[in-house]
């Protein structure tokens, strides 16, 4: 992800430039003092190796900080438009077919989803994962889960219920494998699948378990996930003819939705 941000690129090349300067200094010093030629050669080899490793390490660290800073605009400030503006070009700056391309595309798709543009979100997600080979391999299980959970969210927002059902089945298979090989991943994906299966049920006019939705809401760690659950709970309460509960969840969406589409959704539903 180093090439995605200017600061991480500057950090990487800055470290390499420093390593080069130190190498030149060592050559001048060693030759000036009459050391055998193999000494500066060995020192150069070591400095090149150390410089390369350190430049990659610090470059990746800087890239991670820059990436987290931008994600904060979406997940903490709940401002998808501003996030999209500063993140739109990030996936394209990563290597095609790489994990970084897939993950950053998923982040950008989340931004478009939060802005209410599910169609664009789905296109970005599919383009970002297009170059990933053998996505079904066990080693790529987290990416597989990320892809199918993302597609499921996009399809639900487009009200493509039959396609969403098929996607939910694929995500269920990922979870079944993860229960054996990657329990942390399974634990993360299970409540997400449960929520989105509840949303499928609600979209078809069949009420979900409202008590379970409240439980999912209390356990949700991320703002966007809490907003998604609140909307599902509001829609479900409406199906159950529980106007008071529906208004409570809509009120929470208006209060906590920031600049995401959830705020406008709640305002429209209230009126």
Give a brief rundown of this model.
The protein has twelve helices and no strands. By secondary structure, the protein is mostly helical.
Can you describe what's shown?
This protein is an all-alpha fold. It has a domain at 1-76. Helices cover 78% and strands 0% of the residues. It contains twelve helices and no strands. It is elongated, with a radius of gyration of 24 Å.
How much strand? under 5%
Largest sheet: none
Radius of gyration: 24 Å
> Structural class of the secondary elements?
mainly alpha
Discrete helix count: 12
Number of strands: 0
Output mean pLDDT.
91
Helix content: over 70%
Which helices and strands occur, and which strands form pairs?
Elements: H1 6-32, H2 38-75, H3 80-87, H4 99-115, H5 118-129, H6 141-157, H7 161-181, H8 183-203, H9 210-219, H10 223-239, H11 243-256, H12 261-270
Helix pairs in contact: 1-2, 2-3, 3-4, 4-5, 4-6, 5-6, 6-7, 6-8, 7-8, 8-10, 9-10, 10-11, 11-12
Keywords:
single chain, mainly alpha, 12 helices, 0% strand, elongated
